[in-house]
Amino acid sequence: MKTIPFIDLRAQYVELKADIDAAFLRVMESGEYIAGPEVEALEAEIAIITSSKHAVAVANGTDALALTLESLGIGPGDEVITTGFTFFATAEAIVRQGAVPVFADIDKQTCNLCPEDAERRISSRTKAIMPVHIFGQAADMDAFADIANRYGLKLIEDACQSIGATFGDRPVGSIGDAGCLSFFPTKNLGGYGDGGMILTNDGSIADRARLLARHGSRKKYYHEAIGVNSRLDPVQAAMIRVKLSRLGEWNDRRKRAAEYYNNGLKDTPLRLPAAMDKAGHVYHLYVAQYEGRHELANKLKAHGIPTGHYYPWPLHLQKALAYLGYKPGDLPVTEEACAASFALPMSPHLTREQQDYIIAKVIEYT
Ligand SMILES: *Cc1c(COP(=O)(O)O)cnc(C)c1O
Known about the structure:
- The chain has two domains: 9-244, Aspartate Aminotransferase, domain 2, CATH 3.40.640; 247-365, Aspartate Aminotransferase, domain 1 (Alpha-Beta Complex), CATH 3.90.1150.
- Strands 1-9-8-5-4-2-3 form a seven-stranded mixed β-sheet, sandwiched between helices. It has a three-stranded antiparallel β-sheet with strand order 7-6-12, with no helix packed on it. The protein has a two-stranded antiparallel ribbon with strand order 10-11.
- The chain contains twelve helices and 14 strands.
- By secondary structure, it is an alpha/beta fold.
- Bound molecules: pyridoxal-5'-phosphate.
- Residues 60-62, 86-87, 89-90, 132, 158, 160-161, 182, 184, 194, 196 line the site of pyridoxal-5'-phosphate.
């Protein structure tokens, strides 16, 4: 069998080629290349599917997080409790505001931020909690909403990996004070470059975020705040809108592929990803845990099967954050998860034939 792509972005394009090409050309012909109707339409459509009152398009998911924190008034000296088992941008956005990321450990089953440990780390300087819905599965938002209420903290959802996922009957991104999305190409709803969005039900947060993302300006050449330039291009918005029409179906295909892996791999020593009852998991990634991950990854690679390591090194031990003073052993569950994390190919275009081959090889080498 020829090499299986880890995620097949080209197959996504091929499935939608006629519509994506038409959307691209529509923007090229429009003569309007910043802001405008495509961006507004995407904001309105995403607001509907996430049950959010407001959606603010920005340049990427990292900016969405940073601008959300700033719009919530989080700045120098403030502490934000989050997970070390995530992409670096989660913590980077906190540091960029001059605030301090405080890492709490994760739940062993789901690899999402552990509510009990997060609560233990609350101090007089804590201003917000920022759970990440990791790999497409919602964190325990009942528990985090309860903690945020009791301590008067802001609750921000890093939903960059989980558009379309739910917690109970609520779409992620709309449960806390604000939620952040990324349209990086490999995300479940990805564009053809960078993009991001801020979701909120609070008009004042949306207004502030929009202002800050547009050079602090409402009226051209008049500036009421120091902001940044963080916009989503209309050409990206138009193409993301095409893909949005497939998001539900593609997330369903991911779920079916995950079930197929679960069934095929149930007798192997791999610890398969746990799906919580209340969480509608959308399998951005299919991540198992296996201590022999490096050896297995090399053997699979030799047979044309790529695997992923999300994440090889936890955030609390990253060199860039050494000044925070964490040391190995501080977050044992996070560190064990990093050491054993083992991701198999996952995308809506993964075929049964490819999965059968992957499953057979994993069984053979474990
Ligand atoms: C992708 C991602 C981001 C950052 O998004 P960009 O659009 O790449 O800036 C932030 N947090 C998490 C959990 C992500 O997966």
